[in-house]
Amino acid sequence: MRSLFRARTPPQTMRRRFERFGRTSRATVLARHPTVVFGDHRVGELAIESVRATAHPATVLLYLHGGAFVMGSPSSYRSRAVRLSYRCNAEVLVPDYRLAPEHPFPAALEDALAAWRAAGPIASGRPLLVGGDSAGGGLALSLMILLRELGEASPRGAVLLSPSANQTRGAVSGRHRDLWLDADRLRQWRRHYLGTADPRDPRVSPALADLSGLPPMLVLVGEDEALAEETYRWVARARGAGTDARLLVGAGMQHDWPLTLPWLAESRRAWREISEFVKCSANPPHRRTRAALEWSST
């Protein structure tokens, strides 16, 4: 995979390769899981795919896909959305947000906000959460900060998998054992997203923002991934600001491990915690204590 997605591979080429390897058609999903229900929504030019893998999903999860802001789509995240829906008893909404470099910052954040505003009527009274992985995890954090600043309704909670939340040069540790991401790749790919934006802008790098007053969040990071140390830092800052930020560290795990390697014991454990967090966030009176939901397998 590293050879297919090199630091200087043109983003359009990476996008085509990502779709070729990751795309799953609705027909393929339905052949394996005939009870899955797909839906389509649109906000202006923004398309949003709905995935329901349970008959009566109790929760709605707006999920922002990963892909370094240059690749990824509802079709390449379809299998993952089905897993999220089934595990969390949630209707999962995956917006096809605009990608860089054709659409640099703030296009993705604008689309995330539009999708969030559209999700309320879709939820129709059900609890609404937000989630994302990698670039999408950082985007979900940016969205929550933006909603707070705008004074709009916040999600009940957030599930952030290996979030890329700091676009500055100092965000990657040189001591990682990441087999997928490295400083050179992240530096080059971030340039596509940033355009002329300042990487220190808290809307671009939400890890640098004021992290107070945010909804409860479950943050997952692999022990060996390049983003681990930066994730530890900003989660600690969020906790210091009074936000309920819970950190799950996968021992010896890589970037996005619950999504890319769901059969591993560490992944199964992570999925159980994700499911429980969504359930508890959707029903606050039954929420467990912060300490009870934290674990670190390091």
Notes on the structure:
Residues 286-298 have low confidence and may be disordered. 38% of the residues lie in helices and 17% in strands. By secondary structure, it is an alpha/beta fold. Helix 4 (107-123) packs across helix 5. It contains ten helices and nine strands. It is globular, with a radius of gyration of 17 Å. The protein has a nine-stranded mixed beta sheet, sandwiched between helices. The protein has one domain: 3-Layer(aba) Sandwich (Rossmann fold), CATH 3.40.50.
* CATH superfamily descriptor: Alpha/Beta hydrolase fold, catalytic domain
Mean pLDDT: 92
Q: In what range is the share of β-strand residues?
A: 15-25%
Biggest sheet descriptor: 9 strands, mixed
Do you know the CATH architecture?
3-Layer(aba) Sandwich
What is the number of beta strands?
A: 9
Cα(first) to Cα(last) distance is 26 Å
What general form does the structure show?
globular
Give the radius of gyration. 17 Å
Can you tell me the residue ranges where pLDDT is under 50 for at least 5 consecutive residues? 286-298
Total helical elements: 10
Widest β-sheet, arrangement of strands: 1-2-4-3-5-6-7-8-9
Q: How much helicity do the residues have?
A: 25-40%
Give a quick rundown of the structure.
With 298 residues, the protein is an alpha/beta fold. It contains ten helices and nine strands.
Write the layout of secondary structure elements.
Elements: H1 11-22, H2 26-32, E1 37-43, E2 46-52, E3 59-64, H3 78-88, E4 90-95, H4 107-123, E5 128-133, H5 135-150, E6 158-161, H6 183-194, E7 217-222, H7 228-240, E8 245-250, H8 257-260, H9 265-282, H10 290-293, E9 295-296
